[in-house]
TrEMBL record:
<dbReference type="Pfam" id="PF12833">
    <property type="entry name" value="HTH_18"/>
</dbReference>
<keyword id="KW-0238">DNA-binding</keyword>
<keyword id="KW-0804">Transcription</keyword>
<dbReference type="InterPro" id="IPR035418">
    <property type="entry name" value="AraC-bd_2"/>
</dbReference>
<feature type="compositionally biased region" description="Low complexity">
    <location>
        <begin position="10"/>
        <end position="28"/>
    </location>
</feature>
<keyword id="KW-0805">Transcription regulation</keyword>
<feature type="domain" description="HTH araC/xylS-type">
    <location>
        <begin position="240"/>
        <end position="341"/>
    </location>
</feature>
<feature type="region of interest" description="Disordered">
    <location>
        <begin position="1"/>
        <end position="32"/>
    </location>
</feature>
<dbReference type="InterPro" id="IPR018060">
    <property type="entry name" value="HTH_AraC"/>
</dbReference>
<dbReference type="InterPro" id="IPR018062">
    <property type="entry name" value="HTH_AraC-typ_CS"/>
</dbReference>
<dbReference type="InterPro" id="IPR050204">
    <property type="entry name" value="AraC_XylS_family_regulators"/>
</dbReference>
<protein>
    <submittedName>
        <fullName>Helix-turn-helix transcriptional regulator</fullName>
    </submittedName>
</protein>
<dbReference type="InterPro" id="IPR009057">
    <property type="entry name" value="Homeodomain-like_sf"/>
</dbReference>
<dbReference type="Pfam" id="PF14525">
    <property type="entry name" value="AraC_binding_2"/>
</dbReference>
Length: 342
């Protein structure tokens, strides 16, 4: 992804409309809402001030890796999406957080380590990942060249139809997912970045939606349970492992001992952690996940071929009467009513 370049000389912020017109804008359907922003410099403090505005750098620590540092940035975007490219030739450690946009990043050069949720992950050249969203994370950049696509949070959620939607941060996509994302970049990036030619709002929206669709297909989405544990630290990480285990094995014959072992906790430690952070017992958690799974099967099922009893048993509910009563208390309707609404 190659962004437009200027002369390469140190310059102030050159934000401007992407395709200026000699005629004043009148709000017509031909107006190009994209902006083009290009900055180049060698002043580390100016770089930190600029990047902090977009990425909320907190207590950054910089070590020079060469006699004369260099940084540059270029971006083309509108209110829904921007494509960006940056270099920062220093050793930078800082905490960061972004909560209004989903950021897809891939490394061009240098090295970068992201620490989030108790895990440290090295970015791989050319492999796109979604950076953490609405949670603080630590980054360690070393002479990086980085490409990013910013997708507006509200536009993505409106497109998906889920006001709680989020991607699973730092989870490497499958090989097919990487191909899907790269295909979108190849097909649309050059058109989006061509700032010398005016683009209609219809084309802008089409390209933005193509990137959103590729991201949703390529990158794992974050289940709502994963965002229920707020904070970072060893206990939060163990609790997330417990939740992940329950969601992966809810159909199996598991209980507190198995969940605690998967999380690296004692049974009492699991009980205390769940109570402290989610106000649940292990039994409450397992029952809730199984009810959600049963409801999903009922809503997707064919009422002529699906048995409420079979679905209940497949999710570990041995007593149909108690299952129906618990299900109704949770969802406000009987399991048979969920099956009929399909």
């Amino acid at each position: 992804m190659v962004l437009p370049r200027d002369t390469g000389q140190p310059a102030p912020d050159t934000t401007r409309p992407a395709a200026p017109s000699s005629a004043p804008s009148n709000g017509s359907s031909h107006d190009d809402a994209r902006y083009f922003r290009r900055l180049v410099g060698s002043d580390v403090d100016e770089a930190l001030a600029f990047f902090t505005g977009d990425y909320d750098f907190r207590t950054p620590r910089v070590r020079r890796t060469r006699q004369r540092p260099h940084w540059d940035f270029a971006g083309v975007g509108d209110e829904r999406m921007s494509l960006r490219s940056s270099r920062f030739l220093v050793d930078l450690r800082t905490e960061s957080m972004v909560d209004d946009q989903f950021l897809v990043a891939w490394l061009r050069s240098g090295s970068s380590t992201i620490t989030h949720g108790g895990r440290s992950i090295d970015l791989e050249p050319g492999v796109p990942v979604v950076l953490p969203f609405a949670e603080a994370y630590e980054l360690h950049h070393r002479d990086i060249g980085l490409n990013l696509v910013h997708l507006d949070r509200d536009h993505v959620r409106a497109t998906v139809g889920d006001p709680e939607f989020a991607f699973e941060a730092m989870r490497r996509p499958t090989a097919e997912g990487i191909r899907t994302w790269q295909a979108a970049v190849r097909a649309h990036a050059s058109t989006w970045l061509d700032v010398e030619h005016r683009m209609t709002p219809t084309v802008q929206r089409t390209i933005t939606d193509a990137f959103v669709a590729a991201a949703v297909e390529a990158f794992p989405r974050r289940d709502r349970w994963q965002s229920s544990v707020h904070g970072n630290g060893p206990e939060h990480d163990r609790l997330r492992r417990a939740l992940e285990y329950v969601h992966a094995h809810a159909r199996d014959a598991i209980g507190t001992p198995e969940i605690a072992a998967a999380a690296g906790l004692s049974a009492r430690g699991l009980q205390q952690s769940l109570r402290r952070h989610l106000d649940q017992t292990p039994g409450d958690l397992l029952r809730s996940v199984r009810l959600d799974g049963a409801r999903g099967d009922l809503l997707r099922g064919d009422r002529d071929e699906t048995s409420v009893a079979d679905i209940a048993r497949s999710w570990g509910f041995g007593h149909l009467g108690r299952f129906s009563a618990t299900y109704r208390a949770r969802f406000g309707e009987l399991p048979s009513e969920s099956l009929r609404t399909r």
